[in-house]
């Protein structure tokens, strides 16, 4: 199996040369959305060749952010019925609550606002983790507590900190999106 990512410069040549080297086996290409259109088109063409060969020993999995599965189809429309995009649904509130409860158990803490954090995460395990991490840092809990500790930190305070941290990543993208005309 070959595991690659568009974020690792050492992988870029290997990924770009896959169509020419006749690789056999399973290939996982992570961060597909980061490739330029030329590379995406070459990989889409390679996927089409693999599909035409009906080669059961060679499989390609591409992973990326939303709509990554649509990208190869943009370059090779006849792939549409030959690929299976896997869309992830938001995580259920019970699963987020379980994540938080598991963290409480591991750290030997009790979080007063776990129900509110679960709701504020709006189906995102990642957001729940960010909020819980900030809560623990503010409560100065960085390892398992010897004695059980109750963590009472304002949800509004940890949400504000999370927003400020996420702003570095998403603020400009959100501004561009907001300025788009419909």
How would you portray this structure in words?
53% of the residues lie in helices and 10% in strands. The chain has 182 residues and is mainly alpha-helical. The chain folds into two domains: 2-79, no CATH class; 93-179. The strands form two sheets. Strands 1-2-3 form a three-stranded parallel β-sheet, covered by helices on one side. The protein is elongated and about 60 Å long. The protein starts with a strand and ends with a helix. The mean pLDDT is 83. InterPro entries: P-loop_NTPase.
- Total domain units: 2
The low-confidence runs, each spanning 5 or more residues with pLDDT under 50, are none
Largest sheet: 3 strands, parallel
Report how far apart the termini are.
44 Å
Structural class: mainly alpha
Radius of gyration: 22 Å
Number of strands: 5
Percentage of residues in DSSP E strands: 5-15%
Helix coverage percent of residues?
Answer: 40-55%
Query: How many distinct helices?
Result: 7
**Helix-strand topology string:** EHEHEHHEHHEH
- Write out the strand line-up for the largest beta sheet, numbering strands in chain order: 1-2-3
**How would you sum up the global shape?**
elongated
Task: Report mean pLDDT, rounded to a whole number.
Answer: 83
Features:
182 residues, mainly alpha, 2 domains, 3-stranded parallel β-sheet, 5 strands, P-loop_NTPase
Condensed summary:
The protein is mainly α. The protein has helices spanning 9-21, 37-53, 70-75, 93-107, 114-120, 125-138, 155-179; strands at 2-5, 26-30, 59-62, 109-111, 149-151.
